[in-house]
Design brief:
The protein is of the alpha/beta class and 439 residues long. It is built from 13 helices and 19 strands. It folds into three domains: 122 residues, Methylthiotransferase, N-terminal domain (Rossmann fold, 3-Layer(aba) Sandwich); 229 residues, tm_1862 like domain (pyruvate-formate lyase- activating enzyme), CATH 3.80.30; 63 residues, OB fold (Dihydrolipoamide Acetyltransferase, E2P), CATH 2.40.50. Strand 11, helix 9 and strand 12 form a beta-alpha-beta unit. The protein is globular. InterPro entries: Elp3/MiaA/NifB-like_rSAM, Methylthiotransferase, Methylthiotransferase_CS, Methylthiotransferase_N, Methylthiotransferase_N_sf, NA-bd_OB-fold, Ribosomal_uS12_MeSTrfase_RimO, rSAM.
């Protein structure tokens, strides 16, 4: 029995692809292992979104290649976005690679692994229309109480800086029946938190139902025995009245919304080929906070977009101070070939981009600390994740205001608890990103 080890890089959408590939291989009789040194086959599911992610992917391939000498590795396979985008370059420049499979071929991973193990150098990067469904096996790599569910694949937004449509193809919603069956299967396995993901969750259903159908989907998921439903990657101008109402009124839906904004200066937004402006976005934020009391709002921004002036950056910084997001991340603009923005001449120097990112993040730290301190004395629901690595007497968990990996944590004391338990925690202290409390 051949042993297969995986490294999954990039976003949680990529992680779902990794879990499907692991499920297919396990079903075919391969053994999935965590220890890279013991694996006969190593697979890297790469990210190719921005320069930093591409560099991380290349470094991971080179790092794993050493197990051909130091371990049992007989073949190293590169999958995912980097493979889809740079197949020819990877095969030419990296002899360490023994096989390559793109984003639209993950259902064929078993054959690719067999061919690579047999000494062939398979390359399968053709289709971009594939999307997994509930009939495919899935090896869950997240904790047993939480799982991501990809409700759609690809993107039609065509933001001028983004290469995703070229990598993942056009927007393709999964039928509700398939999603509901998958969620039902996950719940039977012990999943309590379902996190809905796509490049744009708010567009869900427009291609197959002719209408925005995210709210209908959430209503049906809420009828299943799940505890938390979390929504990520909502496009701001597609947040409908119905969506706001279900976030407010359905107890199982986390009062949490991730809506990447990227920028608020009208000229930058136009150059990004995005919709909305500062006034519209601020109006939406105020409405969300009014209609969904206590809602946690998360966003991401891009600084250093081509042509961004100091005045335009200051406009963005002032917006951050005004909006006071609960959670905020900042990317420096990454120049991507084959994108309209990548061909613009007025690129911003890297040191300026980094400086602008750091300025916003320092501002956000102050906002986050202020907001967290306001929670001292309150009692919140927390999902137990385990024991703190620093103190065996302290538990660590997440509130419904915290998405896995990207948001803060809650550290607390209490009686004997198990991962996945949901408990009431009284907050006694706070830092910029984390909370401290007791059951």
């Amino acid at each position: 029995m051949l042993k297969v080890g995986f490294t999954s890089l990039g976003c949680n959408k990529n992680l779902v692809d990794t879990e499907v590939m692991m499920g297919l291989l396990a079903e075919a009789g391969f053994k999935i292992v965590e220890e890279e040194k013991s694996a006969d086959i190593l697979i890297v599911n790469t990210c190719g979104f921005i320069d930093e992610a591409k560099e991380e992917s290349i470094n991971a391939v080179l790092e794993l290649a050493r197990y051909k000498e130091e371990g049992n590795c007989k073949a190293l396979i590169v999958a995912g976005c980097l493979a889809q985008r740079y197949k020819d370059e990877l095969l030419k420049e990296m002899p360490e690679i023994d096989g390559i499979i793109g984003t639209g071929e993950i259902d064929k991973i078993v054959q690719v692994v067999r061919d690579a193990a047999a000494g062939m150098r398979p390359e399968l990067v053709t289709d971009r229309e594939f999307i997994y469904d509930h009939t495919l096996p899935r090896w869950q790599s997240t904790p047993p109480y939480t799982a991501y569910v990809k409700i759609a694949e690809g993107c039609d937004n065509r933001c001028s800086y983004c290469a995703i449509p070229g990598i993942r193809g056009g927007y393709r919603s999964r039928p509700k029946e398939s999603i509901l069956q998958e969620v039902n299967d996950l719940v039977r396995r012990g999943v309590k938190e379902v996190i809905l993901i796509a490049q744009d969750t708010t567009r869900y259903g427009t291609d197959i139902y002719g209408r925005y159908a995210l709210t209908e989907l959430i209503q049906e998921i809420a009828s299943l025995p799940v505890h938390w439903i979390r929504i990520l990657y909502a496009y701001p101008t597609r947040i409908t009245d119905d969506l706001i109402q279900i976030i407010r009124g359905e107890p199982k839906v986390c009062k949490y919304l991730d809506m990447p904004i990227q920028h608020v200066d009208k000229d930058i937004i136009k150059a990004m080929n995005r919709q909305g402006d500062r006034e519209e976005i601020m109006k939406l934020i105020n409405r969300l906070r009014k209609e969904v009391p206590g809602i946690t709002l998360r966003t991401t921004l891009i600084v250093g977009f081509p042509g961004e002036t100091e005045a335009q950056f200051q406009n963005l910084l002032e917006f951050v101070r005004e909006a006071k997001f609960d959670r905020l991340g900042v990317f420096t603009y990454s120049r991507e070939e084959s994108t309209p923005a990548g061909m613009l001449a007025n690129q911003v120097p890297e040191e300026v981009k980094i400086k602008r990112r750091d300025i916003i993040m320092r501002e956000q730290q102050k906002i986050s600390l202020q907001k967290n301190r306001q929670k001292i004395g309150s009692t919140i629901l927390v999902m137990v994740e385990g024991i703190s690595a620093d103190n065996p007497e302290i538990y660590v968990g997440r509130s419904d205001a915290d998405a896995p990996e990207i948001d803060g944590l809650v550290y607390f004391s209490g009686p004997a608890l198990n991962p996945g338990d949901i408990v009431q925690v009284k907050i006694t202290d706070a830092s910029e990103y984390d909370l401290i409390g007791e059951v």
